[in-house]
Amino acid sequence: MASVAAKLAKDKATALGIGSYQNPRKYLNQDHEELKAQCFASKTLFQDPAFPAAQSSLGVKDLGPNSEKVQGLVWKRPSEIKTNPQFINEGASRADVRQGLLGDCWFLCSIASLTLNEQCLCKVIPMDQSFDTNYAGIFHFKFWQYGEWVDVVVDDQLPTKKSKLVFVKSTTANEFWSALLEKAYAKLNGSYEALKGGMPIEALEDFTGGIGELYSLNKAPDDLFQIIRRALSLRSLLTCSTQSSAGEGEIVVSTNVVKNHAYSLTGAEEVSYGGDTVQIVRVRNPWGYKEWNGAWSDSAPEWDEVDPKVKDNLRTECDDGEAWMPFSSFLVEFSRVDLCHLGLENTCCNAKHKWCLTEYSGSWVNGCTAGGCKKNPNYWTNPQFQITLEEPDEGGSFCTVIVSLMQKERRKKKPEGGELFKIGFDIYKAPSNGQLSKDFFKKNKEVARTDNYTNLRDVSKRFQLPVGNYVVVPTTYYPSQEADFCLRVFTEREAETLEIGNIVDANVYEPLLNSTPDTEAQNGAEEKDEEKTEYNAEDLKHVLNKLLSKRNGIKSDGFTIKTCKEMINLMDVDNTGTLSTEEFNVLWKKLEHYVEIFLESDSNSSGTIEAHEMRIALQKAGFNLNNRIQEVLVQRYVSGELTVNFENFIACMIRLETLFKMFKILDTDKDGMISLSLSEWLCAGLI
After folding, report:
1. Containing domain of residue 644, as a range?
2. N or C: which end of the chain has fewer CB within 10 A?
3. How far apart, in whole angstroms, are the C-alpha atoms of residue 155 and residue 51?
4. CB 298 within 8 A of CB 263
5. Which one-letter DSSP state was computed for residue 116?
6. Average of pLDDT values for 407-417?
7. How far apart are CA 413 and CA 178, in angstroms?
8. What CATH number is attached to the domain comprising 422?
9. Are residues 154 and 105 in the same domain?
10. Are residues 536 and 423 in the same domain?
11. pLDDT above 90: residue 210
12. Which phi and psi (to 5°) does residue 596 adopt?
């Protein structure tokens, strides 16, 4: 119950603008300004209880207490490491990022790319921080997380050995912004160890709220160089990665390229050379050394035949880990390019190049919405999201759409053995608005989809689709895998989008009070004490269970007192706590209606119905419920075997009827909203 309330509270806060960049959510409810004021008042330096200078912040396995990597490690503040520490010294640049012992090159090459876009950099790193003015040992950074911005505070105690930083460091010895940024990101993900291994696109998206695209260079499009060059001109963020067929650790080959390693992709130019035009790209190793030594490298002879102005503008001659190389060599040496498009909120892009973004958060819940890929029988239960493309791209006949599916919070589970699920999505041409049925998916093929199900945090793909109405179905590959997800849709032109099945209403069966009871109900009435005119929960239990025992097809031990009290709550219009004969007759007709729905849903006559079939049964009973409500019903009424027995099914129907009825009574002005005091809320909730 508390978790449901927490989700509802978060949704309400989001509706009020909390989670926007201007009003980020306070991570772990830690407010930077309040904590800083407390430090000034107590004349102490901040010590973060949520991410302490202790073993728990390092990790449990590779950086666990028995790991050699943590032996002799001491946490120190920058003033204890270097005299005159600086947060940022003469501006943040890609040269300020040098990798330490932590295997997070994927994260560090993304930081280096971030420095190429000053506006995005300043969004992540508030620049009004220093070790001089208003210093209290506390710093904060802003990250995008699954559709919202969060503000993360850290103290400035950093892991060291022999007074040297263990993890990321700057080429300027007394500069600490990159080390503190890494610490904040480690806190966001649970530990430093959680940052070991990853995809650069994760960090690029977390820095910008943008959307990523991955290009495998073994099947690169013919215009990849133009894509890279245009993206850099739009100040999108790019990285590239190498791979070794041997699958070993990071190894340096003869060209000085490091295999199984991530780089920043910082430039793409066409240069006149030898009477022809040569395409070259610039890559940077986050180690800060070991750079490409082939054609167009720092000391390569090709530069001697280039226009001096071009040469001066492009060439660098120092072992800083960055070098130019031919694009043809790049395609051989590297295996993947990660490209992050910036979202609408990043005003550094020219207006005509901005993407239009729609975001949804959802969940795969076992027994409800975790249907797995299309080969699984419950695929149809997966969440569905509609996109209506009304206008083609400027100058074209198709609509450009990038769809991104991201699974949430899986990195935090990594040190304890948690894994990323294989995820993907399908896109269908929808004949009309509304939920696509089980039969629809049997008869229709998707018009677009991800290439493969992949165990990455984020899978995305670009499509060219005709104008029309589409439905996106995000799934895990295997059914019954539970996770939260964020689905984002980027279009070059405005598109209308909505979550299907988000309407909540009810049109339930209502027999008339004066309707003549059928024979079975009349027989039930005859079972009662004829001298009684009002019947409490015990009476109701006795009568209904006798009636049930005579009903063919129902496998049940009968109703409990709790369920009978729920029935009285629904039918007791005169507030006596009992049912009259007329109210009993109406209740029995309702129960007969629900019995027929249950028997129809129990296709194998097992005495239970499958959890996934509850959605259809609820619709037959007149309830249209969104996924959030469906998930709560699964938690409350579905067994560990993912089935619903007869009594729980009836209890669910009666409870839903009662809640809808209560809301209708309390919604006096019929605006779909009610306001209750604490006392009123408790009275309503305790029924």
Report:
1. 519-685
2. N
3. 8
4. no
5. T
6. 82
7. 24
8. 2.60.120.380
9. yes
10. no
11. no
12. -65, -40
Residue 586 belongs to a domain: yes
- Contact partners, residue 151, CB within 8 Å, separation at least 6: 24, 25, 26, 27, 32, 140, 141, 142
- Secondary structure, 3-state, 333-364: HCCEEEEEECCCCCCCCCHHHCCEEEEEEEEE
Query: 364 and 496 share a domain?
Result: yes
pLDDT given for residue 113 in this prediction? 84
Q: Rounded to whole angstroms, what are the CA distances from 80 to 334, 527, 628?
A: 41, 86, 51
pLDDT in tens, 493-545: 777 777 887 788 899 888 865 545 455 555 544 554 445 578 889 989 999 99
Cα→Cα distances 620→189, 472, 508, 509, 682, Å: 44, 25, 9, 10, 31
Between CA 19 and CA 42 the distance in angstroms is: 30
Do 111 and 90 have their domain in common? Answer: yes
Rounded percentage of the chain residues whose pLDDT exceeds 90: 49
The verdict on 153 and 106 lying in the same domain is: yes
Average pLDDT, rounded, for the chain: 87
Helix (H, G, I), strand (E, B) or coil at 420: coil
Distance CA 476, CA 383 (A): 11
Retrieve residue 86's tokens: 């600086």
Residue recorded with tokens 């032109």: 493
Whether 190 and 227 share a structural domain? no
CA 565-588-560 angle, 5° bins: 35
pTM of the model: 0.81
What is the Cα–Cα distance from 365 to 92, expressed in whole angstroms? 43
User: How many separate domains does the chain show?
Assistant: 4
List the catalytic residues.
105, 261, 285
pLDDT surpassing 90 at residue 453: yes
185 and 220 together in one domain: no
Classify residue 506: in a domain, yes or no: no
Cα R_g (the chain), whole angstroms: 31
Q: pLDDT tens, 605-637?
A: 888 999 888 988 999 999 999 888 988 898 899
Residue 480 belongs to some domain of the structure: yes
For residues 630 and 658, state if they share a domain.
Answer: yes
Inter-residue contact 322 to 284 (CB < 8 Å): yes
Residue 185 lies in a domain: yes
Contact 557, 608 (CB under 8 A): no
60-89 pLDDT, tens digit each: 888 999 998 899 999 999 999 999 999 998
H/E stretch holding 417 reads none
Boundary-marking domain end, from 279, 311, 341: 341
CATH number of the domain to which 217 belongs: 3.90.70.10
On the question of pLDDT at 345 being above 70, the answer is no
Decide which of 465, 500, 535 is a domain's last residue: 500
Are the C-beta atoms of residues 189 and 412 closer than 8 Å to each other?
Answer: yes
How far separated are the first and last CA of the chain, in Å rounded?
A: 15
